[in-house]
Amino acid sequence: MTLGMIGETLPEPALHEKVAFLRRARAYADPVDRVDAIETHMSWVFLANGWAYKLKKPARHQFLDFSTREARRLDCEEEVRLNRRLASDIYVGVVPLSWDQEEGLQLEGTGRPVEWLVKMRRLPAEQMLDRALAAGTVGPHHAVRVAAVLAQFYRSLAPVEMTLRAYRRRLAGEIEACRAELEQPVYALGPERVGAVAHALIAFLGAGEALIRERVEGRRIVEGHGDLRPEHVCLLEPPVVIDCLAFNRDLRILDAADEVSYLAMECERLEAAWFGAVVIEAYREAAGDDVAQALVHFYGAFRALVRAKLAAWHTHDAPPETRPKWIGRALRYLGLAEAHGRACT
Predict the structure, then answer these.
(1) All domains of the chain in start order, with CATH
(2) What is the pLDDT averaged over residues 81-96?
């Protein structure tokens, strides 16, 4: 192992060395049959029998800075704190990857920490909502249970104080940012299509002002999950939701109806629009929140446009051979944004 040095005593393994160590079954205190390593945009996840460990990459982007070990530790702690709101029994805590002069790297050891990881209980893959929808193993009762969990979650949150003007400015700013990105010729998504969707959503901010005002003055703006997609929902009893958007509080500030509409839109993308429709209706009843259908469509279109932008961004840092996949996904989201944009007007 080639190690840099912090000061004169603390070795600092490179990311690839940490990953190589955590891939080995002997890295774990409990007997492990196999270790599955999954790389994401900002982290590595290691699945070892009944446990999952998340190692954050030392990344720096416009919206986050994980370039120091201390920043990664703090984000791990914040991730655990936030995710315990919807998955209290799943997030065990933050554990060290340490260095011992005699033993070398140790996970949850007693040496000096050189990295920090989030430790979770491993969830059954077949009960994740995206996989269950694909397998056809879900029914309306699952959607009702998910809606009940979400309604209770939003009731537990303190409203975030925000003026109507500030909320509309936030939405308009993100819509325009999506338009500017997606209209770039490099994506070949059709600037006319993108512009038409953005125009419809901006128009709704004016025409639907009364509906938006009702959300703001009704104190429905909360610090929510921030990334409520089917792959983050596990159909346990009761259901749990993982992988909150922990690194940026501002992105978690949203209308509760926005978040539920986002989940419904993502179910539609997975050819399960029926599940999202049941979630919306069950949420209305469980939360006592009779959100207007026009607003559901606006939020669905808005979130689809944002996801189209994120899919397009992946073409810049993903392997070249995956570019058609990401452009195809951006086009799928753009189609959803068009459909919901038409429905909200």
Answers:
(1) 4-121 (3.30.200), 129-343 (3.90.1200.10)
(2) 97
